[in-house]
Write a structure and sequence with these properties.
Layout: H1 19-33, E1 37-41, E2 48-52
Antiparallel strand pairs: 1-2
Bound molecules: zinc ion.
Zinc ion binds at residues 8, 10, 15, 42, 44-45, 47, 49.
Length: 54
C-alpha cells in the first residue's frame, strides 16, 4: 500500500500560531503591499491564516 499523506487545503498558506501574530502579519502586508487582510482561525489546522478583505 502506498503511504497516502493527507495534505491540508491550507498547506501552502502562511500560518500563524496566535491571533496576535496574524494581526501583526496583516499590518505588515497592509504597510508593505497595501492589501487589507483579516486574520481567521483555520478549521483544518487550528492555526491562523489571513484572508483578503474587500
Ligand atoms: Zn490551516
Amino acid at each position: 500500500m502506498e503511504n497516502e499523506e493527507k495534505v491540508l487545503p491550507c498547506a501552502d498558506k502562511l500560518a500563524l500560531d496566535t491571533k496576535k501574530q496574524a494581526e501583526a502579519a496583516a499590518t505588515v502586508a497592509d504597510y508593505q503591499r497595501n492589501v487589507k487582510l483579516a486574520p481567521y482561525k483555520c478549521q483544518h489546522c487550528g492555526l491562523w491564516h489571513l484572508k483578503s478583505v474587500y
